[in-house]
């Protein structure tokens, strides 16, 4: 393996794990009301939800176009 690539991966994982260990402070209580989340997603945030779905579909179509075969 290339030494520079190995060093870069090692530094990345060290920074990642140190960041994760510092951010772990315990568990927080979360709401178990999935209905409220779904209701707000499909009422208050419907425009953002639909725009995000269009962006994701565009990304999938672009990925298929880029990786398509030239046969």
Short key terms for the protein model shown above:
single chain, 0% strand, 71 residues, mainly alpha
Give the overall silhouette.
flat
Number of extended strands: 0
Number of domains: 1
Mean pLDDT: 84
Figure out the total of helices. 3
Rg over alpha carbons:
21 Å
Structural class: mainly alpha
**Stretches where pLDDT falls below 50 for ≥5 residues?**
none
Q: How are helices and strands ordered from N to C? A: HHH
First CA to last CA: what distance? 34 Å
Work out the helicity level. over 70%
Query: Main sheet?
Result: none
Overview of this structure, please?
- The protein is an all-alpha fold and 71 residues long.
- It has one domain.
- The chain has 3 helices and no strands.
- The two termini are 34 Å apart.
- The mean pLDDT is 84.
Short structural description:
The chain has 71 residues and is mainly alpha-helical.
What's the arrangement of secondary structure elements?
Layout: H1 3-23, H2 34-42, H3 46-66
């Amino acid at each position: 393996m290339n030494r520079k690539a190995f060093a870069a991966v090692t530094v990345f994982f060290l920074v990642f794990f140190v960041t994760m260990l510092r951010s772990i402070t315990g568990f927080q209580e979360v709401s178990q009301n999935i209905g409220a989340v779904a209701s707000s997603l499909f009422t208050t945030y419907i425009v953002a939800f639909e725009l995000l779905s269009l962006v994701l579909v565009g990304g999938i179509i672009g990925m298929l176009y880029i990786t398509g075969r030239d046969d």
